[in-house]
Amino acid sequence: MQNLPSGRTTSADLVAAYPHAAILLDSDGTVMAFNASALLLFPLLHINQPLSFAIRNPELLDSVESAGRTAHFLEIVERFPVERAFKVSVMQAGATGILVVFDDQTADRRLERMRVDFVANASHELRTPLASLLGFIETMRGPARNDFVAQAKFLTIMEQQGKRMARLVDDLLSLSRIEMNASIRPDDKVDLIGVVRQIIDALKPIARERDVTIHVDPHVIDATVLGDRDELLRVFENLIENAIKYGASGKRIDITIRLQGERDILVVVRDYGPGVPAEYLPRLTERFYRVSVVASRESGGTGLGLAIVKHIVARHRGRLDIQSTPGEGCQFSITLARSE
């Protein structure tokens, strides 16, 4: 808080010292002062203008009108231009002033929504492998108690189901972490060519097992972008592994890295497998959406890979484009801002 030379403190100084967004009004609801946090939330705020010019929430404006008689505490949710939630206190300040304080609850609400989604999705997706495990345990204790050949087979399946549950939990946790940091754009310098080559080296055994050849064609010498290296590794791991698993019948994957315009880097991952019908493309990045549930689960998929890709690309302020022609394969294009 800044003191004036006379030793007196102005109302604007008091408002500026508030830890939350704060607006000081006169008895008519005209803005007298506000702090930087309030201006950041409501850019249309101006001194000597009615609060209704900047904030059009009827419940809040009604509370301001009656603030001289009693303090008001309310919650408001804005849907446009982005969803935001606030706990708002409206109280008398001095003889004629009205103080409005906004406690931003947006992050807390997002975290709670993610928690609810996590529980709902996890319980749904874990139910099948858990039922399978319990069924095999019951069989091994009963009819297959002395059948060691059957037990060996069941143990192999149980191990696969256990690994699938572990992958599912890992993917759900990854998605939650990415969503929690969605508003923070990464700004480290990352070499995309190095990222792609590292993933290809890691996935060579899977590609060799399925007789798939991976070709990389970098059209640029420097493909450095602003981003988070670990998250970008996850993006291309998911895309290339999906291309190997679901496009294996095409026997080839082509990856190109080139300039897009003057300021972006474009990475395209193309397979030559069965492709995806056009009507399914818009839903591919939804959580747990699968064109073929059986094929996805047989390949060890959790249904979260492309959702993770979408959220990471969005956090990097990039673009994800998916194209496919049935019988000719799929093409996934990632565009990211180049590091100057």
Structural class: alpha+beta
Q: Could you give the order of the helices and strands?
A: HEEHHEEEHHEHEEHEEHHEE
Largest sheet: 5 strands, antiparallel
Low-confidence stretches: 1-8
Helix content: 40-55%
The number of distinct β-strands equals 12
Number of helices: 9
Rg, alpha carbons: 28 Å
Shape assignment: extended
Q: In brief, what are we looking at here?
A:
This protein has about 350 residues and is α+β, with helices and mostly antiparallel strands. Helix content is about 40%, strand content about 25%. The protein has helices spanning about 10-15, 35-40, 60-65, 105-140, 150-180, 190-210, 230-245, 295-300, 305-315, and strands at about 20-25, 30-35, 70-80, 85-95, 95-105, 190, 215-220, 225, 250-260, 265-270, 320-325, 330-335.
Description of the molecule:
The chain is an alpha+beta fold. The chain is built from nine helices and twelve strands. Helix 5 runs parallel beside helix 9 (305-315). The longest helix has 36 residues, at 106-141. The radius of gyration is 28 Å and the shape is extended.
What is this structure's SSE topology?
Blueprint: H1 11-16, E1 21-25, E2 31-34, H2 36-41, H3 58-65, E3 72-78, E4 84-93, E5 97-104, H4 106-141, H5 148-180, E6 188-191, H6 192-209, E7 213-218, E8 224-227, H7 229-246, E9 252-260, E10 264-271, H8 293-298, H9 305-315, E11 319-325, E12 329-337
Parallel strand pairs: 7-9
Antiparallel strand pairs: 1-2, 1-5, 3-4, 4-5, 6-8, 9-10, 10-12, 11-12
Helix pairs in contact: 4-5, 5-9, 6-7, 7-9
List keywords for this structure.
disordered N terminus; 340 residues; alpha+beta; 24% strand; 42% helix; single chain
